[in-house]
Structure formats: C-alpha cells, structure tokens
Specification:
This protein has 8 helices and 8 strands; from the N terminus they run βββββααααββαβααα. It has 250 residues and is α+β, with helices and mostly antiparallel strands.
Length: 250
Amino acid sequence: MHWRDRGILLSSRNHGETSAILEVFTPAHGRHAGILRGGMSRRYKAVLQPGNELIVEWRARLQEHIGVYRIEPARSRPAVLMSDRMALAALSSLCSVLSVSLPERDPNPECYERTIRLLDALEASSNWLSDYLIWELDLLGEIGFGLDLERCVVTGSTGNLVFVSPKSGCAVSLVGAGKWADRMLPLPPCLLDRGTGDVGEVSDGLRTVGHFLRLGIIRGGKSASLPQARVRFAESIKQLAEKTRSGASC
C-alpha cells in the first residue's frame, strides 16, 4: 500500500530508540499515523513541530498496518507564530483537538480546508478569535454534536436566544429558560450569527462549544476531558476577557 499527500502534523511521539510515530491530518486520508525512521534525530527537530505542513509519503504491506512515513517540509507554521503567544496557543489547541476528535483514516477534505483557512488567519491577522470559535463549532458538526441554534427548543421562538441547553445542544430563549437559566450554557451573538465577537463573547462561546467537544471525545472513547492545550487556550482567553472587562469598568 502506498500514497502521497500533503498534511498538517498533529503530534509526534517517540518510538523505540530512534524513530517517531507521527499523526498527520491529510485531506484524502484523514487523521493518519505512521512511523518516521530516524525521527528522533536532530535533523527532524524543527520539522516535527505540531502545526507544520508536510508532504508525506506512506507505505505499508497491508492497509491495516501502521506503515512508514517519508516526509518533506512544506510550510512552517509555528516558527511564523512564535512572536504571538496567543496565536501559538490556538495552534496547539487546534492540533490537540483534531487529534482526539477526528476518526482515524476518514477522509475529510472540507474540514482540512477549513483548518488551513484558520491557520492562514492566525498568521495574517490579530482578529482571528472568532474564526477559531467558528472552526470549533463546525468541527462539532463533523463529529456528530452539531448545535441547533435556529430557534428556542422550548418555545419555538427565534428571538432573544441567549442560552444553549447542555443536554440537547439546542438554543433556548431567555423566556424559555425560566428558572433553569443558571443551568444553561451561554449563547453569545458571535456564535449565534457566526460573526465577529469581542473577546468576552469568544470566551463564552469556547465554554459552550468545549462542553460538547468533551462529550464528543468521550463518545469516541479517547478521554473524559478536553486536551490540556485546549484547556489552557480557553483559560487564556477567559483571563483576557476578564482583564478587558475590568479595564472597561474603570
């Protein structure tokens, strides 16, 4: 078996004394692992950074084998983002979330293209926070936990939608929530209309989307919690939102 594709490196880990196991997200072969012989050498240290784009060639005797990779560097993302701590945290979060949420070897060119667009946004602009949130929202749909934000699940109305039910993933209006409002998840405007929101809205949106990402990860049998890179990223955004609110109130 043999194929060649372009992909995003999601992770690498030691394998034996000199090799590494790479997990790469490609459009035609999905999230796919393989062994890189000599991957522990200094030659590959800069190349094997999560978020880098690689040209990968995979070979195995049988399809179900883990197989062996040969790689060529295609585009270095982390190096470009090194001066932007928040963008680098978003990149780490993105890679870790894909690693635990996508099924193995399932082609997903649409998700791949959305991910490339987000990576481009991280490099090109400081106004990418809402882009990241919407990327996660779309990923929920990919793993079967898409949110229904069209109308209130309780009253059927389309106005004043401010919550999401943590059980159903459906929008809930202020009236519909009633006495259960304190048990609901926030539905910020930028999540509702897929637009640009301030850092506070994005923080609220990450809390809501993160709840359902965790459920999707549990269903996939990977873990009972979100990846630490994603937890740290959301916490950084939350702290930034709190600072922003504190400054605005002074």
